[in-house]
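Example 9 (inverse folding). The structure is encoded as follows.
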């Protein structure tokens, strides 16, 4: 059980930063540019172009944000004037003044150079024009322009609809822009929408200075690590402290041997998990590795330069493991239900046993076995065998309540507080994740986030964890019912599955949802 628990925590942490909802962010199939409603550029004349400095004073933003744009655009005007420098041939002073102005204002050219520009391969799926993040950071470090890197997404609508198979996904072009740091995201969004003919969204990098909540979480995590190191170094016989021993836990996690001792009744006194389902544990491990591999592939899907390659390879058999990986979640839930049924079936002979399991599930935080089951007694062997699996399940539930839930809660807090601030870069802008977690973190740790929608899921894998927790209660009720009324339990289980399937069909039909959030072949003509 300890080894399985260590593996569970490891897989949990990997899955918490994984991408099981990535199919919802799969980029559209690349199409020729003439299929989109691109803007028409009117006659462009440099001589009639208004002065940048005057334009910046007309921006509908607050004073601090406007001053940032004024510094940038007015400096651009000075740079252009210093390049033209009329009268420099007649006056040495004029030439010297222009050279000085050029030296002081040439950083504006670096700003314009940092903007995202159309790149090659747009028809092949190169939608991310990130610009130069380092130039924006350099201007901030040199205190020439206090900017922050932002990604502006322009949704260019499709001008065609293929007969029989509509494909109207907009072309989402992402531009990297170095905006004034004095402007909020809302101000920048209103400003971009004012001058853009398309629907836009804007995400800016977060301040890299850790917040008070982030510092508090780091301190708590550091104390936890120090406590584990201290317990590992100092030898102690306390059962509670042994749970934190790094050496002991690592030995259990990496050991493939069974450490059992036979009791007087011929049963292992350690109450470890039944070891007869090696195949099931192996299948779960393979499914997890397969699932994570598919997540990693789909995580980078929107950012690659040749998205068309992924669509063209759909017909290949080797692509199916990464394209259809989301269906593995159903298999993992089924294997978990099978293992729980294997442990409980036939051991709940009364309603009291059923309530006993539910009470342990909701309230018990005690990891060790109940006192009446700690010692073997020949007179109670029959009773021990009657409740052996139930005690094992109770201990498993306690184990998950004291090990799994805190680890999962830490992953939720990590994704909410630390993850967005832990790094920086043009692709390290996780404003959406931070907003989702700030509004729904409590729904995740209570295992109810899947009842509200994608926007209420903090970690992508959280909806699977919630399903596991929610399915457990009706499962043990069906197991109890199946002991005496097997046919009725089968009918109820079939009705539940049918209702769940029909609800999915109804929501897909009523909401006009796509057939599947994954890569598909070319529409049939």
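The amino acid assigned to each position is listed next.
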């Amino acid at each position: 059980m300890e080894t399985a628990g260590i593996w569970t925590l490891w897989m949990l942490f990997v899955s918490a930063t994984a991408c099981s909802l990535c199919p919802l962010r799969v980029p559209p199939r690349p199409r020729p540019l003439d299929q989109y409603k691109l803007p028409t550029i009117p006659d462009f004349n440099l001589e009639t172009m208004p002065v940048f400095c005057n334009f910046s004073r007309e921006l509908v933003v607050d004073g601090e944000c406007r001053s940032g744009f004024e510094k940038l655009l007015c400096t651009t005007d000075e740079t252009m004037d210093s390049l033209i420098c009329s009268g420099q041939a007649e006056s040495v002073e004029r030439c010297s003044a222009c050279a000085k102005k050029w030296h002081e204002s040439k950083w504006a050219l670096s700003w314009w150079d940092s903007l995202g520009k159309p790149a090659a391969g747009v028809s092949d799926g190169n939608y991310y024009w990130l610009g130069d993040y380092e130039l924006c950071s350099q201007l901030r470090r040199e205190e020439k322009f206090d900017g922050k890197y932002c990604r502006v997404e322009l949704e260019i609508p499709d001008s065609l609809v293929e007969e029989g198979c509509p494909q109207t996904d907009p072309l989402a072009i992402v531009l990297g822009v170095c905006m004034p740091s004095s402007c909020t995201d809302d101000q920048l969004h209103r400003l971009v929408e004012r001058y853009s003919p398309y629907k836009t969204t804007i995400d800016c990098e977060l301040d890299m200075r850790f917040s008070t909540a982030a510092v508090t979480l780091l301190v708590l995590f550091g104390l936890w690590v120090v406590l584990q190191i201290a317990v590992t170094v100092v030898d102690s016989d306390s059962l509670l402290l042994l749970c934190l021993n790094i050496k002991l836990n690592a030995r259990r996690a990496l050991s493939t041997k069974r450490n059992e001792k036979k009791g007087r009744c011929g049963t292992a006194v350690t109450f470890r998990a039944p070891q007869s389902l090696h195949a099931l544990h192996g299948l779960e491990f393979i499914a997890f590795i397969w699932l994570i591999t598919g997540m990693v592939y789909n995580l980078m899907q929107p950012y690659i330069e040749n998205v068309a390659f992924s669509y063209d390879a759909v017909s290949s058999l080797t692509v199916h493991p990464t394209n259809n990986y989301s269906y593995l979640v159903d298999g993992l839930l089924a294997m978990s239900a099978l293992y729980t049924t294997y442990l409980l079936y036939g051991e709940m002979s009364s309603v009291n046993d059923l309530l006993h399991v539910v009470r342990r599930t909701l309230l018990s935080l005690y990891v060790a076995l109940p006192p009446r089951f700690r010692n073997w007694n020949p007179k109670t062997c029959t009773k021990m065998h009657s409740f052996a699996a139930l005690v094992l399940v109770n201990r498993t539930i306690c184990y998950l309540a004291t090990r799994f839930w805190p680890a999962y809660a830490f992953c939720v807090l990590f994704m909410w507080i630390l993850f967005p601030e832990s790094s920086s870069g043009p692709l390290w802008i996780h404003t959406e994740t931070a907003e989702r977690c700030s509004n729904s973190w409590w729904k995740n740790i209570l295992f109810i986030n899947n009842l509200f929608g994608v926007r209420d899921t903090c970690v992508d894998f959280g909806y699977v964890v919630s399903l596991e927790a929610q399915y457990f209660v009706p499962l043990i009720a069906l197991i109890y019912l199946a002991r005496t009324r097997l046919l009725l339990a089968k009918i109820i289980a079939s009705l539940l599955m049918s209702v769940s399937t029909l609800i999915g069909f109804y929501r897909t039909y009523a909401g006009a949802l796509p057939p599947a959030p994954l890569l598909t072949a070319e529409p049939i003509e």
